[in-house]
Amino acid sequence: MQKYLCFLILTIVPFIVRGQGEVLDNNPPAIDWRQINTPGFRIIFPEGFSEEAQRMANTLEHLRAAETESMGEKIPKKISLILQNQNSVSNGFVTLGPRRSEFYTMPPQDYNFTGTNRWLDLLAVHEYRHIVQFEQSRTGWNKFFYYLFGENTQAGMAFSAAPQWFWEGDATAIETSFTHSGRGRIPSFNKVFRSNLLEGKRFNYHKQHLRSFKDYVPNHYILGYHFVTHLRRRTGDSDIWGKVSNSAFSWPFIPFTFSNALKKHTGSYLVKNYEMMMDELDSVWTGQLKELNITTFETVNGRKSKTFTDYSNPQILDNGELIVLKSGIGDIQQFVNVKSGSKDEVVFIPGIMNESGMLSSAQNKVVWNEMHFDPRWRVRSYSVIKSYDFETRQVKTITDKTRYSGAAISPDADHIVTVLNTEDQGTYLVVLDYNTGEEVKRFDNPEKAFYSMARWSSDGKRVVALKTTTEGRSVVSFEVNSGVEETHIFANHENIGHPVLYGNMLFYSSPISGIDNIYMYDLESGKYYQVTSSKYGAYNPEISNDGMFIYYNDHTVNGLDVVKVPLDKSKWDQVVETKDRSVKYYQPVVDQEGHEDILNDVPDTEYPEKKYSRVGHMINIHSWGPFANTDLNSAQFGVFSQDVLSTTAISLGYQYDAVEETGFGYLNVSYQGFYPIIDFQVSKGSRSTVESVTNENNDIEDVTFNWDETSVDVGLRLPLLLTRSKYHRELSIGNEVGITKVDNFNQNFRFLDQQANGELYTNVATVSYYSLLKQSTRDINSKWGQSFVGSYTSSPFGGDYDAGQLALRGTLYFPGIFKHHSFYLRGAYQHKLWKLDTLNNDTYLLANQIPLPRGYSHSTWEDFFFASVNYTLPLWYPDIALGPVLNLKRIRANLFYDYGYSEIDLINEAQRVKLQREDTYRSVGADVLFDVNFLRFPADIALGFRFSYAEANNFKSGGSKFEFLISNISF
Fold this sequence. Notes:
The chain is α+β, with helices and mostly antiparallel strands. It is built from 14 helices and 51 strands. The strands form nine sheets. It has an 18-stranded antiparallel β-sheet that branches. A hairpin with a 5-residue loop joins strand 27 and strand 28 (549-556). Helix 7 packs across helix 14. The protein is globular and about 110 Å long.
């Protein structure tokens, strides 16, 4: 009878070795925060950023009413905006739970991203439209859900009601209408969509929306912008999307509510509207190419397949080798030596590149910008400069913990010119020593202009760069020794990019004809020439070492090719009056909005500033009420809080267990403002279970046990992000101390040892580490990598129960035989404290933390060793949609062989018996998984089945087994 007690304890104490908790994106505690309050915004910013904070306060207040006119005319309530100046990523977002917006203030270098806009102005226009959208979403039933559940549910319902492309497409349309250079005006933005459509890849709606592993499909920004713009063009109704979204948001739980809303307001369902858009785009883009004379060129790179692959940013080394940055749907970014008539030679794989839209080489060296991260503070990152020497095959980190963007190496390879981005939003062209990374010269910037894409002239005496101000963009050069600035192309809103100064010839890219092409400005004659006439876009000019050829990128339906043409001015057309082939697809929306010049007259109000206290705003309740739980046998009610600076997360509530018909209250607090994260959990409630036990007459009977339980856990975590190369690396270590107390144990069955009420003290130490090579879209697993997770649970502080467990597991990844195949090994070991003593039955058995060989049910052992060999491969990319219900994107398989070895000791000191049993587990099988989308939701879900054969042993009968799978979870 007493042997059942240790298993009963499994249900008495709901103790689980906790995995690594959520890590919030936040800043170092040393930052002093300030705030500006306006009618519509609380702008929170680091000390020293006041000038830009004031400018954003005025800009956003100026935009508030105008941006709501075509989306319900309901001005959003006040919102917090955090200006993040510690990050080297150029981004911004609006979110709920908690409701806030964040601007990452460092401007990007890529001219085809920002156009001629100032970065924060572009963010203000785009992100405020998202604020308007969220306000619009709080209507009808979704308003009811907000009051019932709070912000998390409002957001979830809003995203289920309207597809991703609507959110970003509408914001991009507003960005295009409210500025002179939004993405809808930039030909590069739609070049993939355009070439796909005109080259016969007219994908159905589901493939265009849900994307594909087979073909490269433009993202939801591009689809959305064109869809939103098309409907406004076709209907002439500036508020058509306000009406559609209002109807969809009002009934978010109805399947296909967005399509129904389109039917209500346009007379056609979603797919029909999509087809009308595609018809219109086919017509206008075909017309754009009418009578276009395309440049004759020689393609340099070879293609072994039609898989979308970019061979971008060609660089001619001094030794004559052609180096490109290769990437695509099946390739991660890699520097490749392109050799005519032979296979590309992969030379080096960089880390996470900070995209600047350019590369630079000299003396057989290439330089670029790469992202480095603060190990602990996820909002703080750096943009460093790295180089690779193609002669010595050595990589060099030239700067560390810096905020440089764009990098170009001088012809003698002694210096680098780059753009320094200061934390107060200043940008300066600086020259660095290549060997030391030290700054040797800084060019003045009294206009507070934004400089970008700086490069050396061919003779190394000048630096040419793009210069963007409120007047637009110009092309300037600096004489390196004197620092004198000279303007070559005066400021306007032509989205000029990628300047290359070769002798007296200034090459650059421009969309002035409606298609991106390469032009040349002759510094001596002052004449302009069109160098290329491309079908879909020409980019990134590079002059050959002998000055005889121009290498550049020409866009095709299969990606960017490297092509070359003779450097012969006599063959180029002098630009007198450029034929404008721009379709100006955006123009009707611009006219409907009527705010194209709104940023020209932003007020200059001086708002009062004051200190922002993180402690004073620590509690910020954003969601409440009942909420979803993956366990269908329980229900939870509570409130959630997180401050807008993501320092403190709190949840307080009550969980009811329908099986036990009991419940408990809980409080969870995670404070992440210190270097180690502090976690605190406390819970108190009642528990109940029914167990079948053997009584003194050897009869089986069901016995109900009731008790009260109180648990308190306090822990420290240290998550460290260590990525500094092509491998994503992270290390997390933690320790948690807990106490669980059982009171009022109501046993209506007598145990020999009378052990019931008591306390369990635990200490749980955890460590996890992974190092995984970057993956392409088609890769199922990383080609090279390692992962490891370990935990050790003990009870060193006394108490009524003993608990102990060591669990270790790891995985090694290797490339398979063919591309996108993966071979990986898994191993694990677990040791439990195992003590079954008749007179001292105080063992608490923890849940297993390692996998069991597939095909077997779970067991309990003292020691268990596990090993597994797996081979994963893609089988087919079908891209089949069964109407709006199911979309099948990929079928893949995993073949496996699992091995396990167990040992168990049963000790009975009273009877002086020791029984040791050991056994082996062997199984073989295959998983087949289908990557699908349901009901047009973009999240890929893996469903499938597993067939396995398990060898019989002393504990298990073995045999064949068929199971259904959700991801890798069998049932």
